[in-house]
Amino acid sequence: MDKILYCIFLTGLWLVPATLQSTRPTHNDNVTKSDKNLTVTSNHTFPYTIIDGEVSTLYFNYILEPDSKVPAGLDGWVVTAVVDHDKLVNIVSNSVFHIHTTNLSGTLSISLKGKLPGRATLIFQGRDEVTGAEDGVFKSDVKVYSQTSFELHIERQEKTIDIAFNVIIVILVVLANVGMGAKVDLSVVKTQLRRPFAPIIGLFSQFVFMPVIAFMVAYTLKLDPGIALGLFALGCSPGGSASNAYTYLLDGNVSLSVTMTLISTLASLGLLPMWLFTLGRVVYSEAKVKIPFENIFFSLLGIVIPVVVGFILQRKYPKAAICFIKAVKYIMIVFILFILTVGVYANLYIFSLMTGEVLLASALLPYVGFILGGLAAFICRQNLANIITIAVETGIQNTGIPIVLLRLSLTGPDKDTSIVSPIASAIFTPIPLLFGILFVQLRKCILANMNIIEDSGKEISQSGKESSKASLKEPDNLSETNHEDFK
């Protein structure tokens, strides 16, 4: 029976992407709507790539085919050009073209300037010309006879500083994973795995709750395909080493935290590509580009192997492992300072792409993860320390992994837009944890002060009892003395 249910679950998981993909609204390029009175074509290859900061001039051919449905008595026609995302690209030339009935075909030229990486659509619309209307301003009741769209890709020109940023990120992730393998106490991991219920809850929360949350958030908010894929890849990523420090400060189970981080990192080699191959196809379907699974797998392999190298270093050369761990701390400080200064300067465009929807999605992913992870541990009757640990491990993701994977694997604008969600999420993730740490530390201080007061009260009470006993003994001595005197 269990095998049958398992097969049904896998079948449903396989069919979900196809079902969702068929129900999701699609956008057909170069399709003329309405009466098809206006046809616009171009010799350029689309999607057309525009470099941000540069101006590109595109040429189009139009043919006007009037029919009996065209109202008589018009001065002519107007063809307007608009872009759907003027935050990414602007039309810097004339965008309104007057077409008279004596010249029903010709050439149009549009100059576009790229501003931010992403996807945009150039749309041509055929309208009735309205006498006295200013260019680009039309009455709301003017009929649009036809519409033709062309997809645009806006990309950043890769600079030396971008290459340096990519190299530093890769080195940082590799060194962190080698350090993880070198400092993990395998005896602690073995002890935790003897009672594997808590690690299993954590693994389930990490690789079931988080991918589903990321998918639902990205799908509901209709994020840009590249940004959505970055959010989904983050949701499929393992926990980060920072979760161990947060668990310690929140009085969680540090041994369980270390075990879950290690297990999720090793499991990500298979589970992350599996999720990208299933629901990831739906998230990225509008991009009309295939996810480069081979590149992602080999990049992921290059991230997991350093953990194994750390294990070998710890087992074979323990003294070298200790020296390496100490050196890595200082190296990572230098790299982090580089990222916070040069890295931020090189990627300032990221903050311009952080719209309200992106910020909401990036905050919801870790916050809902904290709640569901803790709730799952509570339902499974774990103790408070384990509940805190599983909640923290579920919500905190290794941000460096999706950045490295997608930045090195994707091409076009998605190479730049896919890292927006991980970085935005990394900004939001620590906020509730810092409040939690503040609460825990204040509680400790209050309890410590209460214990001091109780201890001092006990001392006062004890001294009071001793003085009372002494005072009770004095009359007896006095009576004995008087009795002797009387004799």
Quick recap:
This protein is of the alpha+beta class and 487 residues long.
Helix percentage: 55-70%
Label the structural class: alpha+beta
Stated plainly, the CATH topology of the largest domain is called Na+/H+ antiporter like fold
Question: Number of domains in the coordinates?
Answer: 2
Principal-axis shape equals elongated
Largest sheet data: 5 strands, mixed
Distance between the termini: 102 Å
Rg measurement, Å: 33 Å
Number of beta strands: 9
Number of helices: 17
Strand order of the largest sheet: 2-9-8-4-6
Summarize the helix and strand pattern as letters. HEEEEEEEEEHHHHHHHHHHHHHHHH
Q: Averaging pLDDT over every residue, what do you get?
A: 79
List segments where confidence is low: pLDDT < 50 over at least 5 consecutive residues: 1-36, 131-136, 478-487
> Based on the structure given, which CATH architecture of the largest domain is correct?
Up-down Bundle
Amount of beta strand: 5-15%
Notes on the structure:
The chain contains 17 helices and 9 strands. By secondary structure, it is an alpha+beta fold. The protein folds into 2 domains: 38-132 and 142-155, Immunoglobulin-like; 160-442, Na+/H+ antiporter like fold, CATH 1.20.1530.20. It has a 5-stranded mixed beta sheet with strand order 2-9-8-4-6. A 4-stranded antiparallel beta sheet has the order 1-3-7-5, with no helix packed on it. The radius of gyration is 33 Å and the shape is elongated. The N and C termini lie far apart (102 Å).
